[in-house]
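(Structure overview)
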Amino acid sequence: MSIREYLESDYQSILTIYESSKLDELKFESAEFELLPFEKDVVRSTQILESDIYIYGGEDVIGFCAYKGTEIRALFVHPKARGKGVGIKLLEFMLSNIVGSATLYVASSNYPAIKLYQKYGFENTSQFQTTYNGTPVLANKMQRSTS
C-alpha cells in the first residue's frame, strides 16, 4: 500500500469513501444528520477537487486526503480500513508537504479526530457555528505552528 496522486479514475473510489465516512465525523453530535452526497455538496466538493488530492491504497483505494496551501481540507478512511494507521500515514504525508503552519477544521464533538490532531501539535485557535446539510454544528479551527 502506498500514497499516490489522485487520478480522475479514482473519483468513484473517493465518492464511496466519502459517503461511507462523512457522517462518522458527526456521530458524537446530539442532532441527527442526513448525508449530503458529495456531488450535491457544492462547497465541499469544490474545496476538495481544487486541492492537492492523494490516495492511499494498492489496487483498492482505502483512504484519501486533500490540502490546498496550508489548509488540510479532507482526511477520509474507509470504515473497513480504520484502525490500521491509514489516517496517520495520510496526515503525516500532508504535514510533510505543507510549508508553514497547517490549519484544519473539525467538528467540536469529533473527539477522536481532535485527539489525533493534538498528538501532531495542532491546537484549537477558535470555535464557530457552522452547518452541515442545514443542521447546526459547532466546529473548531485548529492550527499547527512550524516552530
